[in-house]
Amino acid sequence: MTVSKNIVWHDSKVTKEERQELMHHKSAVLWFTGLSGSGKSTISVELEKELHAQGIHTYRLDGDNVRHGLNKNLGFSPEDRTENIRRVGEVAKLMVDAGLITLTAFISPYLEDRKQVRDIMEEGEFIEVYVKASVETCEARDPKGLYKKARAGEIKEFTGIDAPYEEPVNPEIVLETGSLSVEESVAVIIDYLKAKGYLYETSRSSR
């Protein structure tokens, strides 16, 4: 791929900080990572619903949804997985700049891929949420029937079966979904956002 040298970054006259002030909260990406069936999408959906109810401006990027459009030309080889996460990271960065709390739900199995997304963000803008559940737990749930297909050889390079998952080393949040309910998981994240100052003490009704 040839990259043009004749491109220049054009700054806006509205800053990220000014957008955050308008929205009454800081912006960041909550990066949900974990095995298929661990609860990433389910928790992110409920979290977005709760944040929206509290007057927080959000947007959710989901692994399957993104592959319907932006990344529909990518497969599941290690190279395509890396490119998938790179693109999502760049989109998430733009949304953080727009002042949104952005929720991403992707297996994102490789440590280096997640690190590269963290590295393009400013300090404190990347919150890694490890949705932790064993392969056995995820396979018992198997909400999409994917593990069954992977065991039957119908799906190749399936994370946790015949493709690796590299666990986060120092995630900001760990959710043990084998013991935590969806509601409890959402509460853990909101408590973290409040404790770390991402959510201002300004209610919807007082604006």
Condensed summary:
The chain is α/β, with parallel strands linked by helices.
Strand and helix layout:
Blueprint: H1 16-23, E1 28-33, H2 40-53, E2 58-62, H3 63-66, H4 78-97, E3 101-105, H5 111-120, E4 126-132, H6 135-141, H7 146-151, E5 173-176, H8 182-195
Parallel strand pairs: 1-3, 1-4, 2-3, 4-5
Report what the structure shows.
The chain is α/β, with parallel strands linked by helices and 207 residues long. The protein has one domain: Rossmann fold. The protein contains eight helices and five strands. It has helices spanning 16-23, 40-53, 63-66, 78-97, 111-120, 135-141, 146-151, 182-195, and strands spanning 28-33, 58-62, 101-105, 126-132, 173-176. The protein has a five-stranded parallel sheet with strand order 2-3-1-4-5, with helices on both faces. Helix 2 crosses helix 8. The longest helix has 20 residues, at 78-97.
What count of domains describes the coordinates? 1
Major β-sheet annotation: 5 strands, parallel
* Number of distinct beta strands: 5
CATH fold name: Rossmann fold
Radius of gyration: 18 Å
List the uncertain runs: none
Q: Give the rounded overall mean pLDDT.
A: 90
Cα end-to-end separation:
48 Å
So what's the CATH class? Alpha Beta
Number of helices: 8
Order of helices and strands: HEHEHHEHEHHEH
Read across the widest sheet, the strand sequence of neighbours is: 2-3-1-4-5
* CATH architect. name: 3-Layer(aba) Sandwich
CATH homologous superfamily, by name? P-loop containing nucleotide triphosphate hydrolases
Strand content: 5-15%
Oligomer: single chain
Q: Helix/strand-derived class?
A: alpha/beta
The general outline is: globular
Share of residues in helices: 40-55%
